[in-house]
Amino acid sequence: MYSISEVAAKVNIKPHTIRFYEKEGIIEPLRDENGVREFDDALIKWLMFIKKLRETQMPITDLKKYALLFKEGDHTARERLMLLENHQKKIQHQIETLKATDEMLDGKIAAYKKHVLNKSHR
Amino acid sequence: MYSISEVAAKVNIKPHTIRFYEKEGIIEPLRDENGVREFDDALIKWLMFIKKLRETQMPITDLKKYALLFKEGDHTARERLMLLENHQKKIQHQIETLKATDEMLDGKIAAYKKHVLNKSHR
DNA sequence: GTAACTGTTAAAGTTCACTTTAAGGCAAGC
DNA sequence: GCTTGCCTTAAAGTGAACTTTAACAGTTAC
């Protein structure tokens, strides 16, 4: 079992943000007899998953939806699947966008380098 | 020469946003004798470039910086180069992040599919 | 026993990139 | 002559995802 700050360090999400996620219904940590949050390995995995989804721009609302569906049980698996597939499509589209701009920048940068190099010879 | 709404259609940026970019000093369209904005091909290219940079999350402040440097003239080429290289690095990093999550999702999705398929047989 | 960490609620603030509204006025095409 | 599209300034609003503040209190480690 880990404390909120241990988890924060482990997954690189601030304690504040972790509490915020809880308020949003995205996580539901256990509590000890004093009401202090306790995080087990499953929850840490879930937080790492959240991290990856957020890094790839999944909106908080979708995260909420996913967490809610999970809590509702097994029969929501198909819906959760669709949510993930949907997000994957967005990711793949964004990869293409980024690649295209990356390549365009290759050209631009090459031109600039040539130009700057010329100048430095005078 | 193109009007603002023609340009808006061409580059898929709303007239409002184009005016906003002008206010921010990112573009500087010509004006006709009535003060109506006129866009030439060079400006349209610049707007398309802006579009690509925004789609890849370059902040408006960097766009401003770039436009300002450009206006300052040739001697700022090195600085503009650095700006673009910097942005390219971010793009490449983001591509890696997206790819990693894409692959993780492949695994998750496969597991869900197996699960959902099982259920549908009962 | 005191500093460090934990907790609470509720609200306000921040940043970013627009987007919208208001309220008016000029100019061109049918 | 009226609709459509263009112009202006200035300000307010939006949505997303935190982040911060306030103000207080309990618990644990050294």
How would you summarize this macromolecular structure in one to three sentences?
Two copies of one chain form a homodimer. The first copy, chain A, is mostly helical.
Helix content of chain A: over 70%
Multimerization status:
homodimer
Distance between the termini of chain A: 66 Å
Strand content bin of chain A = under 5%
- Structure annotation, total helices of chain A: 5
- Overall shape of chain A: it is elongated
Q: What features would you describe in this structure?
A:
2 copies of one chain form a homodimer. Chain A is mainly α and 122 residues long. Chain A has one domain: Orthogonal Bundle (Multidrug-efflux Transporter Regulator, Chain: A, Domain 2). Chain A has helices at residues 4-11, 15-23, 41-55, 60-72, 77-120, and strands at 30-31, 37-38. In chain A, helix 4 (60-72) packs antiparallel against helix 5 (77-120). Chain A starts with a helix and ends with a helix. Chains A and B meet through helix 3 and helix 5 of A and helix 3 and helix 5 of B. The structure holds a DNA duplex (30 and 30 nucleotides).
Which tags fit this structure?
122 residues, two-stranded antiparallel sheet, elongated, Multidrug-efflux Transporter Regulator, Chain: A, Domain 2, mainly alpha, 5 helices, homodimer, 2 strands, DNA-binding
